[in-house]
Amino acid sequence: MRRMPIPAADPVHRLRPRPRPLLPLWLAVLVAALAGFLMDLAYPAASVWWLAFPAIALLLLTLIGRRAGGALLVGLVYGGVFFLLLVSWTSRYLGVIPWAALASVEAGLTAVAVIPIALAYRWLPRAFPGVTGRLVVLPAVVAALWVGRELFLGSWPYTGFPWARLGMTQSESPLAALSSWVGVSGLSFLMVFATAMLIESVRLRLWQRPLRLIVPAALVLVLLVTPAFPTATAGTMRIGAVQGNGPTGYFDEREPYSVIQAQVDATEPLIGQDVDLLVWPEGGLDYDPFQDASLARRMTMLTTRIDAPLLANAATARGDEYFNTSMLWTQDGTAEQTHDKRYPVPFGEYVPDREFYNAIVPDLIGLIGREYSHGTNPPLIDVDGVLVGLAICFDVIYDDVIAEGVHGGAQVLVFQTNNADFRGTDENLQQLAFARMRAIETGRSVVNISTVGTSQIIQPDGTTVASLNADEAGAMLEDVELRSGLTAGVVLGPWLQQLLLWGGLGALLFGWWRARRRR
């Protein structure tokens, strides 16, 4: 009797994943810590952008096959190491407590948010065991759940802290142009998708069947060569931006009007130059110019001397409320156009649930005497028919502020910030990288001006045309390129975020249901 030949097993079925961890828990904890360390190096000041990919891979490997409890521990270790390193600048003046509190909250939320990723690795291979399921469906759901984690941390608690979005690591990489097509969240998705696909390619031993490597190889090639989404040139605006390096820190000792004097002194080289708009940073005024007549006179005198409006910023009072306000001060001594910071920083510019936190750390909470209100007016000003989009300090990390300005017709973006409380740390470089990514994402030039540096003027492709070093007074004057038109990243970005958020969760639940039926 002849025996029928047994066909070679397909690698997918030969290596059908078992619902057990790929790594023992003790090793997974160590690998997660290494992933957090590498992920921090992908951000400034190190800015080794390609380290984001091994960091993603290491974290995903620790989650494969792991149950919720183990995933919680792994996520906590990863988040703890990553955020303690990334936001260490919060301890610069206020000490360990704010640093540890912020890092602990973000690590705890990260721990909870990686559980769905671990469940995806348990359920989806059983629900979709074929090559397409393992090579496309599983990586897509994992990447969507990663983006959902970023959106979760970026919106809660209070107004969230969207500082550690994966796409922001790529501001100086060849992948940055992708943000102009899919937004920053879309870039995060593509990075995780490509990494997860590579992991599955190795687990399935696809090198034994080279044709099946075409899809991963093609994806990597597309990611690397995609050009930026085009926007149209619309002329130039001659913008002067001044970094006064004055005593603008929370604990800096200062004489009356010393901040504006530092700004005026640094502006002197621009007097007599052809200037369309003069820009000063957040906190570039000592007092509220709508309440202080002496300060208002100084500003009017300067705008008259330079023959251009001044975009300045100060804390302003309206009734019982305080706002972080940018204003376009004109030569007639008025500022009819203003914008208030949309997202004041919790525990920096206001204290949510003050009574509760005051009972825990009264000394720290007592330092924050002024409660800033959330602004509601558009982040736009009109300078002789040219619309300028605005973002004040940390508002640069909130997508809706940037999108509202560009949708409103902004042809150039101006970001005003005060980094004096973080002198000598990575904070200003991280924020500058986010500003660079906004330039690429929106196809707009960006003027990023700080009280103490680093300040830069950035072209729509992300290149720097002018720069001022940290802790030095100085002024930049450039013919800044204006652009019109919306990138796909600006138009589709918010919709893609919602698709990834709810699509990822929906696909996870569908995978759970399908896996149960197949079992």
Name the helix and strand elements from N-terminus to C-terminus, one letter apiece: HHHHHHHHHHEHEHEEEHHEEHEHEEEEH
Average pLDDT number: 93
Q: Tell how many strands the DSSP assignment holds.
A: 12
Structural class: alpha/beta
Using the CA coordinates, give the radius of gyration: 25 Å
How is the biggest beta sheet arranged? 6 strands, mixed
Q: Regarding quaternary structure, how should these chains be classified?
A: single chain
Distance linking N and C termini = 36 Å
**Strand-residue proportion:** 15-25%
Task: Summarize the amount of helix as a percent range.
Answer: 40-55%
Model regions low in confidence, pLDDT < 50 over at least 5 residues: 6-15
What does this structure look like?
Helix 3 (52-63) crosses helix 9 (179-203). Strands 5-4-3-2-1-12 form a 6-stranded mixed beta sheet. A 6-stranded mixed beta sheet has the order 6-7-8-9-10-11, with helices on one face. The chain has helices at residues 11-14, 25-41, 52-63, 68-86, 91-94, 96-113, 115-127, 131-153, 179-203, 214-225, 258-267, 293-306, 354-360, 362-366, 399-407, 427-442, 488-518, and strands at residues 232-243, 277-279, 310-318, 321-329, 338-340, 380-383, 386-392, 412-417, 445-450, 455-458, 464-468, 474-484. Mean pLDDT is 93; it is low at 6-15. Strand 4 and strand 5 (338-340) form a beta hairpin. 46% of the residues lie in helices and 15% in strands. The protein has 519 residues and is of the alpha/beta class. It has 17 helices and 12 strands. The longest helix is centred in the C-terminal third of the chain and has 31 residues, at 488-518.
